[in-house]
Q: What sequence folds into this?
């Protein structure tokens, strides 16, 4: 990369060092006492289940049992916003929650209730091994049971269960778990970024006026007149309710100010009331008002849809006009901008989501998850887009060090040295933010989805690593987790389960019948085709049922093409409509192929039958072979070894080709991703022993990373070799994203020399065109200390995958996986 300089500045030197890894008994990180107090208040609050949304939405659906589903959704949304309890918290400067108290989780019965009823009775949320939620008292527990019982037979989950056939379910989460679609089976889709720039320009009033005009212009000769009329009417109802909701906050803040004795706090509350009153009736005019509108508009997306990964787009770009105007007028200081950002960052951790225990096993964490905030990169014309807010948003991240937002820094060949250095100083602080995205392959991937170059350059990140276009793409990212080692189980065992012997997939041969390695490769192709057929057809059914039962008029209004066409997002109203399932365990598959190719066919050291028996026996009684397979004498992905790396490329490309281009029910196409987040741990727990030297129950390989079994890591030649292996793949084929975790101990990046080495490493990494990288700067020793003394490490964040989480709140299997990941070093 070049070392072009920028005029962008934060409030601190760009090369300021924050810390080196996690500090036990650390001082407050933020320079603002208010932020430290808000942060501590968040950490001290319990994770409760809140009944109010469930009560209000059920009340509305009982009242409106006839009529269009869009209007039913609108009336329920309106009932929630007009009647939910509002809160003003001490020290806060920005108002608005997700129709529940801060950190409490609402319930969304429109999607599913069977698991809620079952778990309350049989597997109480408060008794989970991790990620517990607490129902406040027995009266609320009974109310939840009674209200959820009313919804039985009326939810997305119920209808999906009716529509899926045996071949689809046998490989799903209710069967062999070859793929898991439960995220959208039981909850909302989310995974989007709205057109925040337009919202800021026109406000709610402008959007409502546009909808009214389009409604008035509808022709009854249009065969879709009824659906479009209902869409516009529902959208108007919901956005008017949003305005009323904001006015309720304005009134509450003014009433709170009237009784406040502290003059400074009284002034703050009065300003908050005025901000809300303004944005209820007009577009925002100031930076503070823009942040206030952002927070409420975003929270209401979650109130409507229950979807996580509601991301914030290119926030340093769409907020820039308000920042620059206020700075130029002298009405705001850079320090107050930073304080507002830090207050917002803490607040963005308040939304929590009650998930079923199956989803919790896949992914630890009680937040909605996926709230990515994208900064840096190029603009639509290809010029560097770094500005003051880019730097301030990184400073706010370093000062707050919380799970959210998930800060994503876009990098390109002309990324300024200041930004590269600031990003690395945050990374060195060891709290898992930011993650880095490479513009060149990512823009190429966006263009593979049919976008113009100018559009592709405006990409943002939603969720962990999914690439999307704000206000134009409804990508159904994160649509399913695919356990590719389970598909490989079908390859080595004739389409049968190693566990039960049941015939699940087609018999395409097994290790005791293959006569050549080409037959093995052909079997991989056939099994992947069969199982992706089952998965994608399942997702299309789930997608169509979302359209039927849970349209999204509120959030659809933030997508220009939806407003123009009169079509809801669930009907294909967005300009780009994708479905993005992601493959997990690719290196586990590649190392299995390398083992088979080398030991069975090239060297003939064992027979296929012997290797098959070893995995059937979970390697017990085959200790010599087990040690060999896990040794450097066998080719493994991640060591810049073409023998194994070419097989990784084959696996990657095979998955992508069987996903790319498939049609979905919204008129778009399927889009492959290659990442597991942390699902590799739960998937491994349900996966039999595998030919790469895994024993039953061990984690499969994480994301794009190499294999690490209980016998040791399969990558042994250091970070440069690992990156060279990774770079042999064309990442742009994975149009739903790829993910790469790297871990260095603190001492590897210590001092100015260590920092500069890491900067140079990232420069070299990006030049090889992988799409993404993120770092844990934490030794195994530190994580083991946290396991031993969790009370001393309560706020220690670790980079799990696409997200960071508090290490001591993670389940033991996931903690083990993090500790076992290869600890890299330079030199």
A:
């Amino acid at each position: 990369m070049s070392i072009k300089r920028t005029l962008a500045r934060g409030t601190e030197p760009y090369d300021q060092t924050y810390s080196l890894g996690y500090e036990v008994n650390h001082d407050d990180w933020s320079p603002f006492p208010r932020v430290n107090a808000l942060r501590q208040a968040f950490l001290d609050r319990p994770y409760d289940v809140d009944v109010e949304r469930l009560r209000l939405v059920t009340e509305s659906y009982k009242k409106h049992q006839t009529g269009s589903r869009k209007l039913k959704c609108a009336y329920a949304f309106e009932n929630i916003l007009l009647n939910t309890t509002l809160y003003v918290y001490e020290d806060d400067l920005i108002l608005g929650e997700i129709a529940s108290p801060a950190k409490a989780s609402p319930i969304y019965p429109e999607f599913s209730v069977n698991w809620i009823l079952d778990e309350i009775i049989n597997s109480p949320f408060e008794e989970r091994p991790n990620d517990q939620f607490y129902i406040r008292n027995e009266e609320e527990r009974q109310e939840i049971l009674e209200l959820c019982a009313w919804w039985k037979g009326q939810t997305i989950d119920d209808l999906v269960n009716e529509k899926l056939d045996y071949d689809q379910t046998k490989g799903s989460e209710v069967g062999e778990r070859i793929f898991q679609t439960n995220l959208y089976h039981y909850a909302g889709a989310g995974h989007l970024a709205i057109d925040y720039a337009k919202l800021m320009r026109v406000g709610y009033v402008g959007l409502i006026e546009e909808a009214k005009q389009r409604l008035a212009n509808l022709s009854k000769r249009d065969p879709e007149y009824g659906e479009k009329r209902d869409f516009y009417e529902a959208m108007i109802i919901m956005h008017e309710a949003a305005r009323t909701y904001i006015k309720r906050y304005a009134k509450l803040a003014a009433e709170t100010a009237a009784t406040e004795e502290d003059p400074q706090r009284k002034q703050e509350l009065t300003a908050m009331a005025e901000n809300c009153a303004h944005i209820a009736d007009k577009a925002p005019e100031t930076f503070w008002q823009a942040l206030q509108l952002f927070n409420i508009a975003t929270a209401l997306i979650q109130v409507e849809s229950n979807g996580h990964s509601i991301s914030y787009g290119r926030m340093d770009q769409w907020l820039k006009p308000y920042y620059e105007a206020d700075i130029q007028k002298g009405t705001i200081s850079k320090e107050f901008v930073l304080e507002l950002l830090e207050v917002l960052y803490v607040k963005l951790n308040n939304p929590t989501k009650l998930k079923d225990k199956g989803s919790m096993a896949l992914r630890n964490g009680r937040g909605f998850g996926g709230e990515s905030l994208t900064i840096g990169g190029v603009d639509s014309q290809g010029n560097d887009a770094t500005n003051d807010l880019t730097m301030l948003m990184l400073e706010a991240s370093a000062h707050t060090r919380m799970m959210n937002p998930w800060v994503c820094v876009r990098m390109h060949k002309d990324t300024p040295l200041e930004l590269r250095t600031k990003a690395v100083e945050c990374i060195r602080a060891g709290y898992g933010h930011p993650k880095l995205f490479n513009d060149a392959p990512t823009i190429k991937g966006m263009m593979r989805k049919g976008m113009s170059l100018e559009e592709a350059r405006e990409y943002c990140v939603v969720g962990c690593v999914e690439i999307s276009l704000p206000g134009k793409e409804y990508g159904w990212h994160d649509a399913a987790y695919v356990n590719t080692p389970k598909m490989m189980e079908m390859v080595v065992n004739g389409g049968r389960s190693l566990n039960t012997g049941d015939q699940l997939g087609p018999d395409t041969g097994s290790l005791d019948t293959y006569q050549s390695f080409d037959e093995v490769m052909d079997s991989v192709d056939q099994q992947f085709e069969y199982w992706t057929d089952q998965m994608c057809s399942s997702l299309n059914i789930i997608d169509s049922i979302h359209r039927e039962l849970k349209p999204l008029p509120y959030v659809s209004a933030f997508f220009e093409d939806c407003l123009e066409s009169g079509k809801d997002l669930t009907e294909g109203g967005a300009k780009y409509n994708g479905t993005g399932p992601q493959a997990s365990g690719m290196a586990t598959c590649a190392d299995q192929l390398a083992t088979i190719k080398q030991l069975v066919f090239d060297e003939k050291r064992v027979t296929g039958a012997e290797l098959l028996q070893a995995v059937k026996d979970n390697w017990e009684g085959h200790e010599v072979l087990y040690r060999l397979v896990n040794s450097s004498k066998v080719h493994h992905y991640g060591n810049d070894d073409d023998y194994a790396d070419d097989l990784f490329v084959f696996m990657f490309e095979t998955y992508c080709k069987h996903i790319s281009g498939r049609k979905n029910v919204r008129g778009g196409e399927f889009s492959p991703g290659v990442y597991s987040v942390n699902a590799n741990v739960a998937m491994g727990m349900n996966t039999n022993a595998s030919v790469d030297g895994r024993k039953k129950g061990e984690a499969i390989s994480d994301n794009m990373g190499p294999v690490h079994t209980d016998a040791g890591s399969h990558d042994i030649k250091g970070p440069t070799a690992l990156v060279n292996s990774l770079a042999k793949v064309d990442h742009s084929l994975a149009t739903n994203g790829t993910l790469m975790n790297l871990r260095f101990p603190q001492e590897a990046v210590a001092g100015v020399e260590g920092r500069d080495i890491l900067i140079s490493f990232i420069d070299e990494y990006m030049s090889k065109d992988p799409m993404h990288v993120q770092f844990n700067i934490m030794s195994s020793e530190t994580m083991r200390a946290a396991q031993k003394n969790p009370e001393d490490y309560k706020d220690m964040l670790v980079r799990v995958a696409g997200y960071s989480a508090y290490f001591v709140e993670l389940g033991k299997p996931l903690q083990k996986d993090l500790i076992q990941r290869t600890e890299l070093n330079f030199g």
Q: What stands out?
A: The chain has 33 helices and 19 strands. The radius of gyration is 26 Å. The chain has a mean pLDDT of 95. The first strand starts at residue 48 and ends at 49.
